[in-house]
Amino acid sequence: MQKDKLLEFLKSQKLLVIATQDENSPWICSVYYSINNNFEIFYVSSPKASHSKHIEKNPEVAFSTSWYNEDDLTDRKAVQGKGKCELLTDENKIKELLENHHKYYSLWKEVITFDAMKNGAIESKPYIIRPSYMKFWNDKLYGPEGLEEFNF
Predict the structure, then answer these.
(1) Which of 65, 21, 33 is nearest to 129 (CA)?
(2) pLDDT digit string (tens) for 19-31?
(3) DSSP assignments along the chain, one per residue
(4) HSE of 19 in the Cβ direction (CA atoms, 13 Å)?
(5) How remote is the C-alpha of 36 from its chain's centroid?
(6) Closest-CA residue to 63 (of 36, 96, 91, 35)
(7) Which residues contact 147 (CB under 8 A, 6 or more apart)?
(8) What are the φ/ψ torsions at residue 40 (nearest 5 degrees)?
(9) C-alpha angle 95-96-99 in degrees, rounded to nearest 5
(10) 73-77, 82-86, 148-152: lowest mean pLDDT where?
(11) pLDDT digits (tens, 9 = 90+) for 33-79
């Protein structure tokens, strides 16, 4: 199993595409994300956004991130997954995940803070995706069209 390579790849990426569903229709969006060593995916978003409203009613999400080498189209990597997403309310967990997030996005360290979220200085709130399944597609590790599946 290449779980360490999966984590390494996820840590190297910045944008995650998230698919949500309400009772009437699906929605898709892209978010800047970070991930910790426990495979907890963290992002910050407005609770007024369509995807956030969907998550409030239905926490099941699908997600994906991908990469390719434009000089070598046999060098591709991607992750598709699913899991539960929720608005984080535990202050200690928020602080822990924000600290990790700031390692990815140092420009936001002074703006996207726990205090700014708590006192309403910014509208955005913290969200966490706890994956239940991921499919890791990686040409270099598994050969053309090769992949590995992970359950969490």
Answers:
(1) 33
(2) 999 988 999 999 9
(3) --HHHHHHHHHH--EEEEEEE-SS-EEEEEEEEEE-TT--EEEEE-TTSHHHHHHHH--EEEEEEEEEETTEEEEEEEEEEEEEEEE---HHHHHHHHHHHHHH-GGGTTTS-HHHHHTTSS--EEEEEEEEEEEEEEHHHH-TT-EEEEE-
(4) 9
(5) 10
(6) 35
(7) 135, 136, 137, 138
(8) -85, 120
(9) 80
(10) 73-77
(11) 999 999 999 999 999 999 999 999 999 999 999 999 899 988 899 99
Residue with tokens 């499919």: 135
pTM of the model: 0.94
With tokens 């706890």, the residue in question is 130
Q: Cα 88 to the chain's mean position, in Å? A: 14
Which amino acid makes up residue 47?
Answer: P
